[in-house]
Design brief:
The complex is a heterotrimer of chains A (about 220), B (about 240) and C (about 220). Chain A is built from nine helices and no strands. With about 220 residues, chain A is mostly helical. In chain A, helix 2 packs across helix 5, helix 3 packs parallel to helix 6 and helix 6 crosses helix 7. The two termini of chain A are about 30 Å apart. In chain B, helix 2 packs antiparallel against helix 3, helix 3 runs parallel beside helix 5 and helix 3 runs antiparallel to helix 6. Classes of the chains: A mainly alpha (about 220), B mainly alpha (about 240), C alpha/beta (about 220). Chains A and B meet through helix 6, helix 7, helix 8 and helix 9 of A and helix 4 and helix 5 of B.
């Protein structure tokens, strides 16, 4: 279907830009790692405390990095009026949304893998339920990327974009924060919670977020 | 019409205060005299959610091309401005009531936590409204933001409630601000809800009128600028 | 067959009425020069025809379809060469061209051919961010041509264009009627452009001041 092909075209474009400029790799990943270290300072390097709170700290870092990633995704379209180019191309708004959110999701997954390794090493956690973890992470990432992409384009042309996007995104993704943290706690053997139930919540959120983006992105793109 | 509404609102608010402070009894197990905050907290909560609902519906009406009118954008904004106040009121009264009931200023119970998220969703929406001077400029982005937030609210509520059931170990006291209502309390509560709803309506109508005046002023300035340019154009042909 | 039909078009940029009631008719195959002083609204008019700006009042029909209703369908058949290239600085010329072509429903070959037409193939592997002003202008033209548009909108295409580019541009304008392409070109270089156009429309203060047939070619 042409929508899929166009979405892949846009996603490939964004990922190629990232591969060329390496902003996510050279700036966002180190940013996340520094946050992990900052948390250790904040919690007095109490290994037991860090191990128990690792899921929450991890996902806090992911959310903060996601703000940067979606901000960058929207920012790429500002120079040279590329946003007008997207509008003039005749591409379906839904395709542009799926492509851009998809690219952000891919970048976030890479970020999560690196950050996860840092957390395992620095906080000393052990993973018991890898499948729950992966499913939860994927569902959560899709939800965050979708909602973030919508809000980032919404605030795209505005001067206060960098401060508006966090205020808009963070309250909206609290269900993801809850679901991801609880299922990670289950995966790390830190609680007896049913991780899979939370994964279902994350999946439902992700679906709704993607639907919202598919419907709303086109009209938002038209409003400069 | 608005004046009559305002008068009725004041009467019912006064009645609610009388019922709440004088007629209804204190509840020693639920914070003693502090339980009277129930008559503010519950109506405020109702309005906080109602107002966002109105904002969401008005946003839909704006987004659908056939029903698009500046009034819907103005209504969405007016309702949000009033709603945020009631949301704040809900949080503050919930916290104050909680102190004698729980012993702490805040508990992460489902209702209060969801209310806090709602409050911040309001703040984000109101911040967006300041990014455009006319309905045409800010209408679509505010409408989409309102709808995303409105769809999010039930999910937030559900996930937070579910989260809190995980913490329902055997505790000494009832963490939820739930009170068994009876007799005069029910009357006071109903009176409060009606009074607050009327107050909301009056505030929104007033704010809407101001917004329409602002929008009208923008439109007139724009029409004048267009007329000037049109007149100037014909001269140089 | 009408390419552009505007009736009492009013277009505002914030509080500024950039177009204050424009009536314009452009038939298919015409090459129209849009002239006028700075701030007259030439860029606004072109962006309006591209569907980038909403009408405050009046009607606009482009390629036979209403601009407000059928925007996406219209956009697939038009191209705008503006002051910006709509490209991504981190991608190469070729990558940008291919993306633009594919996004517009064309192929990578169309992109390569368009680059060749304006003489940019030697720079295909150069990052967009490194291009000079003249090279960017040529790239804009190439991207527009790759779409093979029925309506070509050119906003000050001569500005910053080097000699190689001017050749290519003149060739495009000259070939337009034969290729059944309608062209609306806003330009300050009136004397240079006049021989290549069929009609001149003068825009002043957001309104049409004069419209007359001109030039050696009959429409």
């Amino acid at each position: 279907m042409s929508l899929g092909r166009d979405a892949v075209l846009v996603a490939a474009k964004d990922l190629r830009i990232e591969a060329r400029s390496r902003v996510a790799l050279q700036q966002i990943v180190p940013f996340g790692t520094v946050i992990v270290i900052l948390f250790a300072f904040a919690l007095d390097a109490d290994r037991d405390l860090l191990r128990r709170t690792a899921p929450g700290l991890f996902w806090t870092a992911v959310l903060l990095a996601a703000l940067l990633a979606v901000g960058r995704s929207a920012g790429v379209e500002e120079a040279n009026r590329a946003r007008d180019g997207l509008r003039l191309s005749g591409l379906d708004g839904a395709a542009v949304f799926l492509g851009k959110a998809g690219a952000v999701a891919v970048e976030l997954v890479v970020f999560e893998v690196v950050l996860g390794a840092a957390v395992v090493i620095m906080y000393g956690v052990t993973v018991h339920g890898i499948l729950v973890m992966v499913c939860a992470a994927l569902a959560a990432t899709v939800g965050i990327a979708a909602v973030g992409t919508v809000y980032a384009v919404l605030a795209g042309g505005l001067r206060a974009r960098e401060t508006l996007v966090p205020l808009l995104v963070l309250p909206a993704v609290t269900p993801v924060m809850l679901g991801a943290t609880r299922s990670f706690e289950a995966a790390l053997g830190l609680s007896a919670v049913d991780g899979w139930a939370w994964v279902q919540l994350l999946a439902a959120y992700a679906v709704l977020a993607v639907v919202a983006g598919v419907i709303g992105f086109g009209p938002l793109l038209e409003e400069s | 019409m608005r004046r009559a509404l305002g008068g009725l609102t004041l009467v019912l608010l006064g009645l609610t205060v009388y019922l709440g402070l004088v007629v209804t009894p204190p509840r020693p197990d639920q914070g003693g005299e502090a339980v009277r905050l129930l008559y503010v907290h519950v109506p405020a909560a109702w309005i906080a959610y109602l107002a966002f609902g109105v904002t969401a519906v008005a946003s839909i009406l704006w987004l659908v091309p056939r029903t698009r009118r500046a009034e819907w954008d103005l209504l969405a904004g007016a309702s949000a401005e009033v709603g945020v106040v009631f949301a704040g009121l809900m949080l503050v009264t919930g916290s104050i009531w909680g102190k004698p009931t729980w012993g702490t200023w805040w508990e992460w119970d489902a209702r209060l936590t969801s209310a806090a998220i709602l409050f911040f969703l309001y703040l984000g929406y109101l911040a967006l409204r300041r990014t455009g001077a006319t309905a045409a400029e800010r209408g679509t982005r505010c409408a989409v933001a309102a709808l995303v937030a409105a769809a999010d609210i039930p999910i937030v509520h559900f996930s937070v409630s579910w989260w809190q059931t995980l913490h329902q170990d055997a505790t000494v006291f009832n963490r939820d601000l739930d009170v068994k209502i009876s007799g005069s309390m029910a009357l006071a509560l109903v009176c409060g809800v009606v009074a607050y709803t009327l107050a909301y309506a009056w505030l929104v109508l007033t704010r809407l009128e101001v917004a329409q005046l602002e929008e009208g002023r923008e439109e007139r300035a724009l029409a004048q600028a267009i007329a000037e340019r049109t007149a100037a154009g014909t001269v140089t042909a | 067959m009408s390419s552009i039909r505007l009736r009492s078009a009013v277009c505002t940029l914030g509080r500024f009425p950039a177009l204050a009631g424009v009536d314009l008719d452009v038939e298919a195959g015409e090459v129209v020069l849009l002239s006028g002083p700075n701030g007259a609204g030439k860029t606004t008019l072109l962006r309006l025809c591209a569907g980038l700006l909403p009408l405050r009042s009046g009607t606009a029909e482009v390629l036979g379809s209403d601009l407000a209703r059928d925007r996406r369908a219209i956009r697939r058949r038009i191209a705008l060469v503006g002051h910006e290239t709509f490209c991504y600085d981190d991608l190469t010329v070729s990558e940008n061209a291919r993306f633009a072509a594919r996004a517009g429903g064309r192929t990578a070959d169309d992109a390569d051919a368009a680059l060749a037409r304006v003489g940019l193939e030697p720079l295909a592997g150069v990052a967009h961010g490194r291009l000079s002003q003249g090279q960017r202008r040529r790239l804009s033209l190439a991207l527009a041509l790759a779409r093979d548009p029925a309506l070509l909108l050119l906003d000050e295409p001569h500005a910053g264009l080097d000699d190689r580019g001017r050749e290519a541009l003149d060739a495009v304008l000259g070939a337009a009627p034969a290729e059944a392409r309608t062209v609306l070109v806003a330009s300050h270089e009136v004397e240079r452009t006049r021989p290549l156009v069929t009609r001149e429309v003068r825009l002043v203060g957001g309104r049409i001041a004069a419209a007359e047939p001109v030039g050696k070619r009959e429409s």
